TrEMBL record:
Threonine synthase N-terminal domain boundaries: 2-81
Tryptophan synthase beta chain-like PALP domain segment(s): 94-325
Name of the molecule in the record: threonine synthase
NCBIfam families, A to Z: thrC (TIGR00260)
Keyword Phosphoprotein recorded: no
Length: 516
């Protein structure tokens, strides 16, 4: 399997190149050259597979045996998920029988965010590739292969990346976060990791400033090459790939619960469009899914797209919501989805090759338009096709807070379970309730199963949870619910560098700390 860029000017990349470089040289994102075929009997054959077994089957469809031998891939996968605390890795639980609502819990990894699923895997992949490259060095004097990860975080990505990469040989990690704008728990999760290869930088500025600095550093060709800069944000193809698996795992969990040919609607809390894009690939591979529902907070550029066909930046800038990991202006992974729209609906060339080349041109144009005018628009035909697979909705701050309260208040019964939702998950759960009629109409049936992906453990977002519960449950105390790793974390030793919003200052810091 080879990979090409969404912008069409770069192709023929191996999986290793796609993962190690992150972004294609023409500025596009890597996508696989084709969608592989599943075994025709996968629905029966894979039914009882564990998460790790499913990962091996699905990932090996996208990674040639000649690139990573199956036995090595298995080791990488097993190591990646050995750090999860739930035996099912990503369990699915039914919390309301009446409305047939399930939660796909993705927060049992080391930092209690769904990003662990992909970043544990990515860290082990980096390690595997570097080790292999270094074992092929001919002489002691040959340069050692290294990777310098520079990434920006608004909170969750940084912690998950640090836990995926701490202690990895020949990898240096620099994570920029906006000073005083991540939660104290999130900050402590990052800065209490004291491994030599981990460097936290609190930037005097906003998350956007951090991201701009990272982009500027990648744009400095000499710097990028000298330090072998690598990316861990969700544009990295390996992250999408690893996430495809849990859509399958959830489907089979529901089948094992006795449901024959289940009709499933997935509600995916969406920011950068990585999590739900993995669902799109699951559908492309052939997983039976009734709908994918893009679930956004008021930063709803993607919801607006699925309603109007226009992808348009909001005028107000990023809004602050109770679900901060989804507070984005534009969704970087949306470009991958757009490529498929362009290829399937907008390109008109007679041959496959023509259409692929046209799709790249169309994406380049759309991305140029987005940059220069703040928007682009797709054809009516594209929108109709997109809406067959996707629905979308927006949850307000108020609805988010009320939804947490509603599910916490439930008295356990045979049909309903009391459940503490995190604010991101609540965005999806609210839509599972409010969009019932709309989705039933679109599908032509109402006996579907709603699954909301739960992207974080509620104790990571104490503020929103307390806001939701404090008036009805004055004695509510998050402490007994805190995962062991969070107990006392705020008092632990922290290491962090405080730097101005200045690319040169950050570059200097990276120079001084990167391993040579
Ligand atoms: C990153 C994140 C999201 C958004 O996921 P995308 O892949 O960016 O759409 C949602 N919830 C939480 C808790 C996250 O950390």
């Amino acid at each position: 399997m080879h990979y090409r860029s969404t912008r069409g000017k770069a192709s023929g990349y191996t999986f290793e190149e796609a993962v190690m470089t992150g972004l294609a040289s023409d500025g596009g994102l890597f996508i696989p050259n084709e969608i592989p075929k599943l075994p025709s009997d996968f629905l029966t054959k894979w039914k009882d597979y564990s998460f790790a077994q499913l990962s091996l089957e699905i990932l090996s469809l996208f990674i040639d045996e000649t690139e990573i031998p199956r036995a090595d891939l298995k080791k990488i996968i097993d190591a990646s998920y050995s750090t999860f605390t739930n035996k099912d890795i990503v369990p699915s639980v039914q919390i309301d029988k009446e409305s047939d609502l399930w939660i796909l819990e993705l927060f049992h990894g080391p930092t209690f965010a769904f990003k662990d699923v992909a970043l544990q895997f990515l860290g082990n992949l980096f390690e595997f590739f570097l080790k292999r490259r270094n074992s092929q060095r001919k002489a002691e004097s040959d340069p050692v292969h290294r990777l310098t990860i520079v990434g920006a975080t608004s909170g969750d990505t940084g912690g998950a990346a640090i836990y995926g990469l701490k202690g990895k040989e020949n990898v240096s990690v620099f994570i920029l976060h906006p000073n005083n704008r991540v939660s104290p728990i999130q900050k402590a999760q990052m800065t209490t990791v004291l491994d030599d290869n981990i460097h936290n930088v609190a930037v005097e500025g906003t998350f956007d400033n951090c991201q701009d600095i990272v982009k500027a550093l990648f744009g400095r060709e000499d710097f990028r090459i000298k330090h072998s800069l690598g990316a861990i944000n969700s544009i990295n193809w390996a992250r999408i790939l690893a996430q495809i698996v849990y859509y399958f795992h959830c489907y089979f969990t529901i089948v094992r619960a006795g449901r024959v040919d289940p009709k499933i609607v997935f509600f995916t809390p969406t920011g950068n469009f990585g999590d739900i894009l993995a669902g799109h690939y699951a559908v492309k591979l052939g997983l039976p899914v009734s709908k994918l529902v893009v679930s956004t907070n008021s930063n709803n550029i993607v919801d607006r797209f699925f309603k109007t066909g226009k992808y348009e930046k909001g005028v107000e800038g990023v809004l602050e919501t109770p679900s901060p990991a989804m507070d984005i202006l534009i969704s970087s992974n949306f470009e991958r989805f757009c490529w498929y729209i362009a290829y399937e609906c907008e390109a008109t060339g007679p041959t496959e090759e023509d259409r692929i080349s046209q799709a790249g041109q169309i994406i380049s144009k759309w991305m140029d338009d987005l940059k220069s005018t703040g928007k682009f628009e797709v054809s009516e035909a594209s929108l109709i096709k997109a809406r067959k697979e996707f629905s979308s909705g927006t949850t307000s701050d108020d609805q988010t807070i009320k939804t947490i309260n509603k599910y916490y208040k439930i008295k356990d019964s045979d049909s309903k379970k009391n459940y503490l939702l995190d604010p991101h998950t609540a965005v999806g759960v609210n839509l599972a309730n409010t969009m019932r009629d709309e989705i039933s109409n679109e599908l032509g049936y109402s006996d579907y199963i709603s699954v909301c992906l739960s992207t974080a453990h509620p104790s990571k977002f104490v503020e929103a949870v307390e806001k939701s519960l404090s008036s009805d449950f004055p004695e509510f105390d998050i402490n007994p619910l805190l995962p062991q790793q969070f107990v006392g974390i705020l008092q632990k030793e922290q290491r962090c560098e405080y730097l101005p919003n200045d690319t040169d200052a950050i570059a200097k810091f990276v120079e001084s700390k990167a391993q040579y």
